[in-house]
Fold:
Amino acid sequence: MGYDERTPPTAEEYAAYRTRFCNWGRWGPDDELGTLNHITPGVRRAAADLVRDGRALSLSRPLDTRPGPSNPYPTHHFLAMPGSGGMLDYLGMFIHGFSQTHIDALCHLPTAEGLAWNGKPMAAGGIPGTHSGTIDFLAAGIVTRGVLYDIPRLRGSAFVEAGRPVHGWELADAAATQGVEARPGDAVIIRSGFDPYWEAQGTPPAFGTAAGVHASAVEFLHRSDAALLVWDQQDAPMADQGLPNPMGDIPVAMHVHAMVLPYLGMPIVDNAQLEPLAAACASLGRWEFQLVVAPLDLPGGTGSPVNPIAVL
Amino acid sequence: MGYDERTPPTAEEYAAYRTRFCNWGRWGPDDELGTLNHITPGVRRAAADLVRDGRALSLSRPLDTRPGPSNPYPTHHFLAMPGSGGMLDYLGMFIHGFSQTHIDALCHLPTAEGLAWNGKPMAAGGIPGTHSGTIDFLAAGIVTRGVLYDIPRLRGSAFVEAGRPVHGWELADAAATQGVEARPGDAVIIRSGFDPYWEAQGTPPAFGTAAGVHASAVEFLHRSDAALLVWDQQDAPMADQGLPNPMGDIPVAMHVHAMVLPYLGMPIVDNAQLEPLAAACASLGRWEFQLVVAPLDLPGGTGSPVNPIAVL
Amino acid sequence: MGYDERTPPTAEEYAAYRTRFCNWGRWGPDDELGTLNHITPGVRRAAADLVRDGRALSLSRPLDTRPGPSNPYPTHHFLAMPGSGGMLDYLGMFIHGFSQTHIDALCHLPTAEGLAWNGKPMAAGGIPGTHSGTIDFLAAGIVTRGVLYDIPRLRGSAFVEAGRPVHGWELADAAATQGVEARPGDAVIIRSGFDPYWEAQGTPPAFGTAAGVHASAVEFLHRSDAALLVWDQQDAPMADQGLPNPMGDIPVAMHVHAMVLPYLGMPIVDNAQLEPLAAACASLGRWEFQLVVAPLDLPGGTGSPVNPIAVL
Amino acid sequence: MGYDERTPPTAEEYAAYRTRFCNWGRWGPDDELGTLNHITPGVRRAAADLVRDGRALSLSRPLDTRPGPSNPYPTHHFLAMPGSGGMLDYLGMFIHGFSQTHIDALCHLPTAEGLAWNGKPMAAGGIPGTHSGTIDFLAAGIVTRGVLYDIPRLRGSAFVEAGRPVHGWELADAAATQGVEARPGDAVIIRSGFDPYWEAQGTPPAFGTAAGVHASAVEFLHRSDAALLVWDQQDAPMADQGLPNPMGDIPVAMHVHAMVLPYLGMPIVDNAQLEPLAAACASLGRWEFQLVVAPLDLPGGTGSPVNPIAVL
Structure:
């Protein structure tokens, strides 16, 4: 049973991820880069070699200032009142959630024992107890090879449906179909087809993810020595995981987040816009490119809005 | 008299910039990219070829949440009160000013006649009258060759001093000294040495720039078909310009801004952190590299915070 | 036809309110108090005489930080990040809307011709063109007699239902039933029963008012020389008004607002919590008391959050 | 030695305040009103009897949106960008500090042992560990007798000078001079003359109080069974106290705050504007009136902006 047999982990197998895939200490006790350590100078050079067509694409959604069920924490974009002493545009935003494209710092989710990446303690209120795991440690940016795993294309469907979460072995299948091989340091970009999904629904999904990626994908990320996870839908919902809730009482499915952030030490770009990228890749017949993610240098922040750029 | 004679423009010559360097209509009446049109696929490919050492560097200052004379509009970084309905980090910031690293959209400064890039009208309150010139048009990111013009290195001084503004022909001198040639589509990155400047002062300068770049640099930018201006100090102060104030009653020297944004149609990255980059360039003996600037996709915004990444 | 015949105004009669009830110039061309001029020292003394039981009550809803259909613009309540330079609680709120208890300044709604109270011009963006009509003019507070008009009590129903808007003559009826007489300078407090309404629905109404006060009430306010309008539900919806929309394209029923603010020059307290007050009045058998409303002194603001206090 | 001998407390005497003036348990173990319990219905009735001239006055400073050394945390007043989904004015403010007129909730300062009013525990980040001591408990408003203690008038000076802090017995002196007697339930309003002070300086003082009230005033507040403290300058600076810093490492003099909030259980209105009130009292020859303070009902807040209204 397990990944090689293309079966989802049992509750026990999922629990064992916490030790099997734990990278604590792998790059020293005070490491702050986690799986970004897989991005060596050679990886960056090889990524630059993928710039063949000279085309740049955004993987970001527009910041959305309109409130609604799918965007209960909208971005604020204000003008300072004339004479009020401010300077034109004020941008205010909750960094996390299911709307704005953002990156989670390693500290964003602790383990059930209250420990963040590399075993560092958390303090009250969801912030680190020491200066560790915060987004400022990623300020040099993430420049590496991006590989798009286009699951709707693999499945011959318009989008990943509720009830059929993306499994780890499907990522391997997609790579094979697309003629690309996973390499250490990759940004693994999983397309579930968020836009076609909600166009089919007639409305964007309410706060949360109605369909997405199963916990079994964690094994793929670990085996392939990936550096970064990027996705348009997030963790598949509770019903699709068939596993205990690693978040305890918090009724949001975080089965991938809860392994990837604290144990693997891998940052995650949530709510990416992958439709233009998928179209470009299909048209060019290649699914690998240079990817640049540049988090804002927010000291002590648990994440940052980002506009990831693919250069093909 | 003029640039070729290494003399600053007279008031008449400076006024004539508005027609000599005006790019309105150059890329069509509804163009929204301005000088970013110089960044062709070939320019992007050539920029990627400059990734030789596989090293990535940030050109951003940390977002600064501490108020003070040099930072009267500090960034806000809040936690949502437990139970208050929000989600962890709230990031709030004025986009412009002299502290946070940010990019100015083309609409950020209009002409004295109230027209923005390509002659588009402005509305009240410093925002465009139509959807034009805003930062969302730059959401695909700026990926091009970056060239560092290290003026303190050229001058053999620690930093650009007040009273000795950076002139356009010095950029040409720096290029020659550094063995690099300006090319169309470049990001022209002008280092004045902000950090050594304020360390020498014992305190960061109050809101504004105490030393910086003269209006004569505009001619260099236009002649070389540059795409983007990046700098650590901004426009040299009024006394160093020796020219009428193009901003009328607004007592902030904007002699470069006032030409570059509305007439050339060139975005500007203000308040870059260039010290680590200068050290890396000096150590590698090369001053050209791939530069990626990824503005947030803020519809209607007049700019965005950015973390520009140099890949060497 | 008309108020005395207990019939709602026709479209023509409603349009005529703009001249019949217009107070422009009544207290001079530069008056900034509008109907608050009715609150003379004698009115304030008489109001203080109504403090008989020595009991103080809030007419405010709690500031609501939870987003949802009824509260798409929730209040923000943040803690400054430790070390971030801020000071504990940051309170951020949109002043207007249908959730938070707030007062509208006289400038909050202009006429169709773009004029605010006393004929002062508005500028772009919904703010006054000159310093006029803003909330800072009301900084001395509103201290006067409050009279509760308890419409559900009058009607013998739990709350005002959709399709049965509150009419002006019902205010007179309620006064008669309650044994109280309208006097110049009064705060007219109209209870529609917001809480029982939404408890009956099982959910608070979506953004807007599902039931409330008809335009005919404007005549009562004008005839009685009232100073201030306070209510828990706002203008009855479009279908209940049976009148053209005075807001043009804006699909929010503002038939009372649109007369009261710009023409009468009467401030309005929206979204009051009137249940505890109604219970106290019923228990004491009197519906008049001292009312104190203390807007924050926000220069240039179009309103303010308030916590109106009734002293019985 | 001590209050009766008109000598400031020694370090030991000041430390003993913590037991001598401790009201924990006085109104039950779960009391949330503290000294506001002194405001009985009779006190409210008597306060209303003081409304003789029918005049209302604000004790609030304007909200100040301009940054500067005296206002490093200015209020934000924004307009939502057209089309951005917001609604006109957004008001954002840090509640505490030395600029905006605000009320401190009982939880705002804990004891050195980390306990707030009535011995309730604090949590990390300066917020209560349980729902206790927060501003929502004061939502019914504070309606009582206000008495102005005009210290510059007593001293025959323009303002309280640095080096000459206001002592408790001077409050008794001022009462005697003004012909008024302290009564249980009073709001004690101490004028130090903030405006004349900074006009004499030519600039408002930097963040903090340069002159103000000595710890010895705490004894007056306790002896007289006052309900509320209101002042224009806050605690006199460290040098004027001549006492150990009750805040430990925090270099802000809080000798009065540190007793009044957690031990007495008395809320404080900071940064009041008392000049118009002082002029009115002097002109009317009476220093007592009705005072109404109406905090916003902010659940979990440690304070609120307020506009206190005096009715004379």
User: Anything to note?
Assistant: The CA atoms of residues 102 and 270 of chain D lie 6 Å apart.
